[in-house]
Amino acid sequence: MSIPSEEPRIAEEHGQGVLDPMSAHSESAQEQALPPLPPWHCVRLGPVSGRYQGYQSTSRTSFLDCRVDIDPRGVNSPVTNRVSGDFHEVFTIQLPGRPPIIWRRYRESWIIDAPRATWSRCEVTITGEVRFWKGTHPMTQTRIRIPWGTFAPAGPAEITFTENGGVARTYHCPRTSVNFREMTLEVDVCNSVNVTPLMPAYHTHAHSNRPANVPARTVTVESAYQEAGIGLTLNTPAHTIFDDANNTFSTWSAPELHDAMETAFSQFSGGWPRWSMWGFMAGSFDNSGVAGIMFDAAAAFGGAGEAPERQGFALFRKHSWFNNLPSGSPANDTEAAALRDFLYTYVHEAGHAFNFLHSWDKGRPDSLSWMNYPWRYDLRNGTDTFWNRFMFRFDDQELIHMRHGDMASVIMGGDAWASGGHLEQPQAGEAFSVMEGLAPVELLLRAEPPVYDLMERVTVEARLRNLLNVPMEIDTNLDPAYGSMSVFVQRPDGRVHHFEPIMSVIAIPETATLQSTTMATTGEDRHSHEIDLTYGRSGFMFTDPGTYRIRATYHGPGGIVAISNVLTVRVLTPASRQDEVQAAEYFTDQVGLNIALGGSASPHLSKGLETLTEIAQRHKDRLVGARAAEILTGVYGRAFNRVTDYQRGTFSQVARAEPQRAIELTQPAVELYRNSPDRRLNLAYHNLVSRRADLLAAADDSEQAQRELRELYDTLEQRKVRPSVLEQIRMRQEKA
Amino acid sequence: MTSARIDFTEGFDNDEIIVRVNGEIAFHGRNVTTSPLIGLAESVELTLPGEHAEAEIELPGRGAATRLDLRASRQVAVSVSGSALSHTVSAEGTEFGYG
Q1: Chain A / chain B CB contacts < 8 angstroms
Q2: Cα–Cα–Cα angle for A371, A292, B66, nearest 5°?
Q3: What pLDDT sits at residue B93?
Q4: Is the pTM of this model over 0.80?
Q5: Is B66 on the interface with A (CB under 8 A)?
């Protein structure tokens, strides 16, 4: 967890040494010398604390999202005496006669652990040293000036960062919210438990066992988080009702819950991380003692084991805690306790999605927090003591994390649950950063299904789509070697690697115009490219069975930047002991270079070629073999020349083209692709048939080339591939 | 015939657990590990043979063992720290919940 270890200086009132501007004794000596001001002069509406957002004053390429937490936001919302913020990089496209299109990318987060606030009648000045959560930075001081008028809210803030050495940047930030962060919660429900209440609303005085001084109020999931500083919007225009009436289905497992989330969560297919969460009301968990679970965590923790994590949680309505849940106001302590447990479970499970562990796992077993277990607290402190003391809040450390923690460790889909260090490498900020605003182009990474055998080449489809209502020029060569794409891969051990191709190519961009989405009817608004990530400058990328996360950034003409979704793929364990043995021969530089070069007959790489040929022949009925066979078309399909006499500069052919051999070796692959339902093979199938058409032409078999192109056309047409691709195949057929 | 439930909660880490009821093995689990997501490693539902029901819980790998009188409660939460097993029973009319 990224919470500072020292005890936070939390004050329910203003912090020590901090003067309240609303006090009559806060005028400076200079102000006292002036004629007296009317008592209402600079009476502020609302607190200073809240969210301030704005651009750098001298340049609109940097955006600041700042959270000031120095005075009470409300009666039940403690002050943590912290200031924090996130920097974003801003991109703008200006089209003639149209408003600018602006989008931004998250860069990094920081916090001021000990802000010093100096209050005067009409403004507060906050100073402090900035601590960045990641990376190396010069010592940076911040000065925040927040003025207000008479009967006006605070702001805008003028926020200046001064680095050691004198470089200063100032941001102009209007106050945008009383909350520090905002999120949405979408709740779906199973048919078997679709009964009132679906959401809890508990009055703090409903049960006789309560703290004597607990303020009377109705607490809901929204208000519990609002008091914690998080603006939670319940996003349930209509609950998706899951039909769980199947007799063979009685309890839910974590993977089944994740699968349900993939189906029902309207935000699931969007880019992650994001400030969205899914809640699910189901019947019973596999272990009937479980009242709720944030299932979206590593399998080792009992979760579903599918990254990105912390997207969703479930409540189990058939748990005994909820047996006496009233449909309206509770009539007695038993019903009140059920309703209180219902609220507690909701807030607790959603808390896990903010990356919270249980209180005792953080060394705070006596914490009076939503994240403790009441019955565990009672074991240490006496029967019924938890509810007798609990003030319906998170503890101080948790509030600091939620409000001011490093964004990656708080935001849903960011750092893995129970960690904050998975993405600490310098490139990680770019690898899994968040895009906000309306980007002009969508970059989508796809692999369907996203599963690969060990030793199978790992290729993914990168698709660009124009989101503007005007045509847009793009660079069509999305191969990372050409420089328009940066690809990042998070391996199963959590480390993030920048995929660097073995060669960097300097070339004139191959541009094309994507039509606007609103005008395109046959897919002219998008462009797809198959990217091979198998082998790069640092060797093979996918050498271990497990889950990998892939993300890419596109840098196109006109300064357009797009960040892709996070594509999660799995590499399976070896199918047999024979595969394990062969893997040792496969994961060598000789094989890798053959793959990266598209096949090579160089004597220096002959061992690698031999291994690939053997794999293509031995596994001809599997994708491992088919993807290896594709490489062989590049080797046998053309002659290989090399310098044979360096002194004379003699360049000789050392291997002749063997198109017939290439045709034979790739024949099983064509059949496999044609008969496979895998959508991710569409591009591979198209590419392979195109290459074979050249080989068949070289082998004087145009008739077979025609036949295969026709089959390709028919197959892809059935698979509803977009018409522009089919048109390419038809034109190729005419040439053949 | 009555039933009881034993929840193995905190501290389990790839442990072998043997539960005997009145001397007979009723549960034998291996690689039992606490999930920090729910604070729970394993739950065992036991059907009790008669009025007298004593359970013995043994963790051979830690040299730890304890005895429970299952008539005292329908639900018992057992945790382990080092070689020390401890347990607590749920209050009358209530059940432990996890999440």
Answers
A1: 68
A2: 80
A3: 77
A4: no
A5: no
